[in-house]
Structure formats: structure tokens, C-alpha cells
Amino acid sequence: MSHLFNHLPTAELQALDARHHLHPFTHGQALAAKGARIITRAKGCFLTDSEGAEILDGMAGLWCVNIGHGREEMARVAYDQMMELAFYNTFFQTSHPPVIELSQKLAELAPGDLNHVFYASGGSDANDTNIRAVRHYWQLVGKPEKTHFISRKNAYHGSTMGGGSLGGMAGIHAQGGLPIPGISHIDQPFWWAEGGDMTPEEFGLARARALEAEIDRIGGDRVAAFIAEPVQGAGAVIVPPDSYWPEISRICRERDILLIADEVITGFGRTGNWFGSQTFDIKPDIMTVAKGLSSGYIPIGGSILSDKVFDVLSGDEFNHGYTYSGHPVACAVALENLRIMQEENMVETVRNDTGPYLKEKWQALADHPLVGETRISGMMAALQMTPDKTARAAFAEGDGVAGLICRENAFANGLVMRHVGDSMIISPPLVITHAQIDTLIERAVKSLDQTHARLKAEGLMKTA
Ligand code: PXG
């Protein structure tokens, strides 16, 4: 197997990568000029690059490697399942043991009456499924005019035509004719940036009531569903004020619209419960899942449907599906992932031990001169950099200049910490230990210190 582990020199890999690989969400020529960092190995919470440097994976890959890297059991299960049944479809009145077992397991783990799964290969295509499933649902119950989706600005629901349209990212909407018709976006509950003089609780209520206003604007008889992440992830770990979710739930219930919780990031232990819907007491009709479902070891996603939605949809032929819906190897690997999480009490550990430990250390970063606020839920967290804490000010230089500097510093200091504008984000593997959390915090502080020094030296600590 050594051919897998010996690789070309870094510069050659970078040149080939630049020539033949178009990266997602990346300026190709800018990356080509700089050269991609090549990651060659990973174990637990640490990555190794092609130069042999070790890096703490503060983002769990891309919010997904919940059980940590390099678990041998996962590879064995994939091997065994490939030898037993590498592929068979679930389209034409056939099924197979891994998809049956995984569906039963998800029904057991998911809250309430979320008991039925439609499979995809990731979160974007699962959200595309949700658009079709929800519209077909309303068609079948005799309210075909209910087709409109309400989502939120700065939400991330994927980058397919449907997922990118449901999402509220301006950069995505600027390309390719998105959003598709029939989707509108209300303001997000981001108190730091948008809360003005309101208290967080007042602001949370106001932003929830924007949903009611939007339903009135569109017409209640035309609105099919509201979709939201329990905690906005890619949007910069925006933990809503406590007043937000109860009000959203009330509105969805009273106005007869379906509630879709996009749990692609918040699912599978990330917030200290199996699902963010449990942490925030949300009762969704549909939950989108992906990422942590397999800890990123293999692509799989899906929509977990309530009894109410399933009972209607299963009464007709649903003309929708992907070749890899319920892929046997993906299902077997996901099952093994869930088995490991349960056997090792990972969710309870995040809730009762490592989560509170990280929270205490992370919140203390608010004392840093560059940090305006910290946000955290379980194992996902953000810190907001600002030139003026009391004014909750943005940088004059524009959004993301400080963030990029800080991210580069963190990388050089052996920590993957993502930046969204001038928020710094972490979402480490759920298996991170106290000692590794200490290392993460040390490296984050060092990176903040360096960033602060540079911003001061370059006259960039100016308020917009
Ligand atoms: N919903 C949510 C809430 C997500 O975070 C998707 C759907 C789409 O899933 P797929 O598997 O199709 O990528 C996501 C994905 C980032 C980043 O930079 C976040 C995601 C993907 C890529 C980058 O934070 N989240």
C-alpha cells in the first residue's frame, strides 16, 4: 500500500493541482499563484501536511469529522460491505440490510416523530429533495398553491440550484441566476452585527416576527415552509437569542407552514445533543442531515421526515431519487459511525464535559483587546474581532481583512481556524480532549496577538 503514502514533492503536487483541479469556492488563479497546502494524513484531531507539519484540525475537516480522523473500524466496515454488497439501488422495489438498519437507527435517534429517511449524498442535494418533497406534500393534501419557501439571509443550505437558492449567501446568488423563483429571505438573528440598541432577547423576538411579516406579505395560503439552521454555521456560528426559536415555532404552527431544520452541521452531537433541534427545543417536520452522519468518512446525507409528511408522501409515487440514495457502503459506514459515537458516549461527553470546558476557555477570549464577543454552542464556536468593542464596530478596511490575517496566522501556528468575515470559527472533532482544547486556545490566543499587533502596526484598528 506504500504507493498511497509516498507522494511527489510539494511544489510538483501544487503545480499539478493548479493545472487540473478547479477548487470549490476558490479563486483558481490566486490559489495557483500561492500553491494549495497539501494535506496528506490525519489521525484523531491532527492533520499532517506534505511538508510533515502537524496542524490541529479546529474545523473537523469541514464541520464533519465528528469522531476524529483515522478510525480503523470505519475502514473495515467499508471493506466488508464492499465485499458483501458494494452497490444496489433502492429504486425498483428493492432494499438492502444497511439502508434498513440505518433508517431504523436514525428514527430512534431523531426526536419526536421524525421516523422516516429519504437519502442523498450530502446536504445540498438533501435540501433539493426537501423543496420537491414539501411542494409535493402540499399538492397531495390539496393545497397546491403552497409552494413558497422562506429562508434567511446569510443562511447556508448548500450550493446546488435548490440548496444555493434556499441559502441566503449574496456571493452565491450573484452567480448562475440564483435564487430560483419562489424563495425569499428574511433577516438573521445576528445580534452583534444587527441588533442595534435592542437587548438580545428583544432582537431575537423581532427577528422571529419578521417571519410572520413575510408570511403576511407572501400570503399564508402560498407559503409552504420555513427552513433554518438551529445555529447558522457557515454564516459565522450565529447562536440565536433564547427568545428566537420558541417564537419561530409558534409562528410555523399557527400559520400552517412546515418547519425544516437544516441539521447538516448541528446534527450528530455538535451542539451537545444528538440534534440541534433538541438543544433549542425545535419540533421540525423535516430535518436535513449529512456531514456528521458519517463523520465525513464517506458521502451521505438525507432528509428525516415526520410521520405527518411521510404518511402523505408515501401515498403517491415520488418521482425523485439519486443513484446513490441509500448507498449500501455509505449506510454501513454511517451506522458504524453512530455505533462508535454511542459506544464512546461522545454526545454526553460534549454536553457534560468537553463542551463546558471549551465554553469556559472560549468565553474568556472575550477579554482579548481584539475580541468583541464570543458565541458558542457545544463544539461550534465563533469569536468576533472588532476595532471597538463597546461600539460593536466593524473595521474601516472592510469585512474579512482582519479575518484573513488571523486565519493565516492560525494556520502558521498549527491551527485550522476558519474565518467568516471578521469572525473566527472553530468546530473541532467531538473527541477533542481537555489537553487538546488547551492547545487550541493557546494557538488561537497567539494568532489573535499577532493579528492585533499587525493591525495596529498597519493602522488598521480603525472603525468603519
Ligand atoms: N446545509 C448546511 C447547514 C451546511 O452547513 C450544507 C447544507 C450543504 O451540504 P453539502 O454536503 O452539500 O456541502 C451545508 C454545508 C463553510 C462550508 O465554508 C460549509 C458547508 C459546506 C462547505 C463549506 O463553512 N456546509
Explain how this protein is built:
- The chain folds into two domains: 37-67 and 345-457, Aspartate Aminotransferase, domain 1 (Alpha-Beta Complex), CATH 3.90.1150; 73-343, Aspartate Aminotransferase, domain 2, CATH 3.40.640.
- The mean pLDDT is 97.
- It starts with a helix and ends in a 7-residue tail after the last helix.
- The strands form three sheets. Strands 4-10-9-8-7-5-6 form a seven-stranded mixed beta sheet, with helices on both faces. A four-stranded antiparallel beta sheet has the order 11-12-14-13, with helices on one face. A three-stranded antiparallel beta sheet has the order 1-2-3.
- The protein is built from 18 helices and 14 strands.
- It is globular, with a radius of gyration of 22 Å.
- Helix 17 (401-412) crosses helix 18.
- With 464 residues, it is an alpha/beta fold.
What is the gist of this entry?
This protein is an alpha/beta fold and 464 residues long. It is 42% helix and 15% strand. The strands form three sheets. A seven-stranded mixed sheet has the order 4-10-9-8-7-5-6, sandwiched between helices. Strands 11-12-14-13 form a four-stranded antiparallel sheet, covered by helices on one side.
